[in-house]
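Fold sample X.
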Amino acid sequence: MSHTVKDKTKLLARVRRIKGQAEAVERALEAEIGCTDVLMLVASMRGAINGLTAELMEDHIRHHVVDPAREPDPERAKGAAELIEVVRTYLK
């Protein structure tokens, strides 16, 4: 079973929130609201996309590369944990 299938409900909930944010941007543009407000909506949507991307990348690293919690080699475990942290930080 794929790890994305295991976390399917949680991931789909995130995607649905992003969809709602995209619809809010569409409504804002149709209503011709100020550009500052539209930019704020887009920024929140970008943050949500980055959060989803970070979660998917972290799961991929843990399931297909190396899981720091299960890696017997302390150096590899440390490297994997650092990579996960860099991904999270970069995508904030």
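Fold sample Y, listed below.
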Amino acid sequence: MGHRLTQISTRTGDDGTTGLGDGTRVPKDHLRISAMGDVDELNSQLGVLLAEPLPDEVRELLVVVQHELFNLGGELCIPGYTLLKDEAVLRLDEALATHNATLPRLEEFILPAGTRSAALAHVARTIARRAERAVVTLTAQDPSAVNAAPRQYLNRLSDLLFVLARVLNRANLDGLGGDDVYWRSERLLRNAE
């Protein structure tokens, strides 16, 4: 990546365009810019989650994820460039398997609630899904626009954030959780009677 920001206010975007990493300018509502913005928002939300008390292994994982999301954003910023490695997707698969193995089987849908850290992980999960949809939309418009790894990474990351929300509820570091918050479905209510 050849260009580094040396100043923030350049006024070059006042005309409704923005520059990509390869120097081309595109409208600010371009699908590529939307995808980059969603990835940036996701990374920022993970920064908020990292400001919470977290188990050490979750913190370490999320710091790595932040760096990988920055790589993913860089890849989106430079058409045809590969920056996110396949190993990043594999790392998420391994983390999913490790953390999922510690959790009880779900009996019903759960609400995005519980401890503050779990709720923040759920917000990040929904942003990851939106970022994934943006990458899918960009790829549908131009199949060569994005490599497969960014889409796969976002898909796995949203799954991992769901699992981590469950882990964080059980970690109960703020004393407000301890378990999943189950949806009170008609079926559960009937079975409880």
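Sample Y note: The domain at 26-100+110-187 is CATH 1.20.1200.10 (Hypothetical Protein Ta1238; Chain: A;).
Also: The first strand starts at residue 17 and ends at 19.
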